[in-house]
C-alpha cells in the first residue's frame, strides 16, 4: 500500500468524509430508528395496544399516522449527523495518533483500538445528547400532537422545562456512545486482522462492509441497554409527574426489577438492522470518500 493511501488526512477532510458517510447512512436507515424508539418507550411486559414487532410498528404507523411519520424527527439527527459522524471518525483517528504517541506504539493494537473508540464515543456523546433529546420527543407516539416540528419542540422544552432539560440523559448518552464506539472500532480492528487481504479495490470495499456490519452489530449489542434508559430519560416530561429514571445504572436496575432483563433490549431488532448494515455503509462510504480526497486533494 502506498504512503499516499495511508497518509493521515487533515481534520477538515476527516470531518467532511465523516459527515458524508453519516448522512448517507441516516437517509437509508432512519425509519428503523423511529421503530426502535417506539419499542424502547414501551413500559411493561406487553399487552394492550403495545407494538408487538418491528413489522407491527411500521404497519401501524403507516395506517394510523401516515407514512411520513416514519421520518418524523429526522431534522435534528440530520443537522447533528454531520458533526456526529465526522467526530466519530475524526476523533477516532486523532485519538489513535495521540495514544500511539502516548504509549510509544508503532501501530494500533486491539487494546488501543478499543481505547480510541471509547474516547471518540465520549467526545461524540457531548455533541449529540441535546439533538437526541429533541429527536426522541418528536418520535414518541404520545407527543404526536404536542410539537409542530423541530423548532416548536425546542421552544416548548425551553419554555416548559428550562434550559437544563436539554442536558437530560447526557450521562446515559456517554455510556451509549462509549460502548458503541469501543465495540465498533475495537472489533473492526480484530476482524480486519483476521480477514484475508483484499487484492482489489472491490474486495477491499467488501471487507470494509463486512467488518463494519459485524462491528456495528457488536457495538449495538453492547450499547442497547444504555440506549433504552437514555431514551426513556429524554422522553420524560415533568408535567407527567416525577422522573422514573435519572441515570443509566439505577435506570437499568429499575427496568430489570420491573420488566425483566430482556426489557433492556427493547428495540434491539430495528436497532441492529439499522446499525449492523449501517456500520458497513458508514465504513464503506468513509473509506471511499477519504480515498478520493487523498487522490485528488493531497
Describe this entry's structure for a reader:
It is a single chain. The chain has a single domain, classed as Mitochondrial carrier fold (Alpha/alpha barrel). The protein is built from ten helices and no strands. The longest helix has 35 residues. The model has no long low-confidence stretch (mean pLDDT 89). InterPro entries: ADT_euk_type (IPR002113), MCP_dom_sf (IPR023395), MCP_transmembrane (IPR018108), Mito_2-oxodicarb_carrier (IPR051752). One of its GO terms (molecular function) is ATP:ADP antiporter activity. Keywords: Membrane, Mitochondrion, Mitochondrion inner membrane, Repeat, Transmembrane, Transmembrane helix, Transport.
Helix and strand run: HHHHHHHHHH
Main sheet specs: none
What sort of overall outline do the alpha carbons produce when their principal axes are compared?
globular
For the record, the CATH architecture stands as Alpha/alpha barrel
Q: What is the helix content? A: over 70%
- Name the beta content range: under 5%
How far do the termini sit from each other? 16 Å
**Helix/strand/pairing category:** mainly alpha
Number of helices: 10
Can you tell me the CATH topology?
Mitochondrial carrier fold
Radius of gyration of CA atoms, rounded to a whole number: 20 Å
How many domain regions?
A: 1
Provide the residue-averaged pLDDT: 89
Q: Which CATH C-level class is it?
A: Mainly Alpha
Tally of strands: 0
Low-confidence parts: none
The CATH superfamily name is: Mitochondrial carrier domain
Membrane topology: Multi-pass membrane protein
InterPro entries: ADT_euk_type, MCP_dom_sf, MCP_transmembrane, Mito_2-oxodicarb_carrier
Protein name: Mitochondrial carrier
Transmembrane segments: 12-32
Amino acid at each position: 500500500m502506498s504512503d499516499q493511501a495511508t497518509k493521515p488526512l487533515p481534520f477538515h477532510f476527516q470531518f467532511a468524509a465523516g459527515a458524508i458517510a453519516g448522512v448517507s447512512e441516516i437517509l437509508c436507515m432512519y425509519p428503523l430508528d423511529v421503530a426502535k424508539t417506539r419499542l424502547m418507550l414501551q413500559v411493561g411486559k406487553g399487552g394492550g395496544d403495545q407494538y408487538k414487532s418491528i413489522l407491527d410498528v411500521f404497519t401501524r404507523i403507516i395506517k394510523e399516522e401516515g407514512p411520513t411519520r416514519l421520518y418524523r424527527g429526522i431534522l435534528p439527527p440530520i443537522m447533528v449527523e454531520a458533526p456526529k459522524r465526522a467526530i466519530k471518525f475524526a476523533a477516532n483517528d486523532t485519538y489513535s495518533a495521540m495514544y500511539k504517541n502516548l504509549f510509544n506504539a508503532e501501530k494500533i493494537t486491539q487494546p488501543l483500538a478499543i481505547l480510541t473508540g471509547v474516547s471518540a464515543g465520549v467526545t461524540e456523546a457531548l455533541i449529540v445528547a441535546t439533538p437526541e433529546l429533541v429527536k426522541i420527543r418528536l418520535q414518541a407516539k404520545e407527543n404526536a400532537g404536542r410539537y409542530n416540528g423541530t423548532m416548536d419542540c425546542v421552544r416548548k422544552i425551553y419554555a416548559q422545562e428550562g434550559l437544563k432539560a436539554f442536558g437530560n440523559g447526557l450521562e446515559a448518552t456517554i455510556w451509549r456512545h462509549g460502548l458503541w464506539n469501543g465495540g465498533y472500532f475495537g472489533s473492526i480492528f480484530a476482524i480486519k486482522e483476521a480477514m484475508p487481504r483484499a487484492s482489489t479495490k472491490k474486495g477491499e470495499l467488501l471487507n470494509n462492509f463486512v467488518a463494519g456490519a459485524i462491528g456495528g452489530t457488536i457495538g449495538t449489542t453492547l450499547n442497547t441497554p444504555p440506549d433504552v434508559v437514555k431514551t426513556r430519560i429524554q422522553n420524560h416530561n415533568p408535567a407527567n409527574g416525577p422522573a422514573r429514571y435519572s441515570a443509566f445504572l439505577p435506570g437499568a436496575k429499575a427496568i430489570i426489577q420491573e420488566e425483566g432483563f430482556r426489557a433492556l433490549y427493547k428495540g434491539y431488532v430495528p436497532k441492529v438492522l439499522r446499525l449492523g448494515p449501517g456500520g458497513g455503509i458508514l465504513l464503506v462510504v468513509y473509506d471511499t470518500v477519504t480515498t478520493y480526497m487523498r487522490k485528488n486533494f493531497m
